[in-house]
Amino acid sequence: MEGMTRGELSKRTGLSMATIRYYESSGILPAPQRATNGYRTYTEDYLVKIKFIKDAKSLGYSLKEIQETLQLLSQEMDAGTLKKIVYDKIVEIEAQISTLHTLQTMLRGLLQTDQEDIQNYLKSFHINGK
Question: What is the pairing mode between strands 33-34 and 40-41?
Fold first, then answer.
């Protein structure tokens, strides 16, 4: 295949053309080559990169993290480095889960709080005792 236009890439990936343009301008995707007519032409590699971006986003990676990982992947990388990146994300997710469990426990405690105590707490936010 000679290459795809941005519109074709958009249809094949399910991303809007604006999103593809944003990914290019922010450096997440490399700038595509241009055909003799000046149109951008995208290779099959872009399909792989966009799938990676979509998958990574669904796993909770930020666009900055995705960009950094794509930059690493564009260089020589060994399996150990990739595993370290994944491990670090697991540790981050576990910390978030722990924080959410703590918040859940606090909220459950609020449900057990006496109605009068809650009313007194809410009154402390009123202006001029109203």
Answer: antiparallel
Which of the 8 DSSP states describes residue 75? S
Distance between CA 51 and CA 55 in Å, rounded?
6
Q: For residues 67 and 25, give the distance between their C-alpha atoms in angstroms, rounded to a whole number.
A: 12
Full pLDDT tens readout for the chain, 130 residues? 478 999 999 999 999 999 999 999 999 999 999 988 888 999 999 999 999 999 999 988 899 999 988 888 888 888 898 898 889 888 988 999 999 999 999 999 989 999 998 888 889 998 875 5
Alpha-carbon distance 122 to 12, whole Å? 53
Q: Are 89 and 56 a contacting pair, CB within 8 Å?
A: no
The residue behind tokens 């796993």 is 59
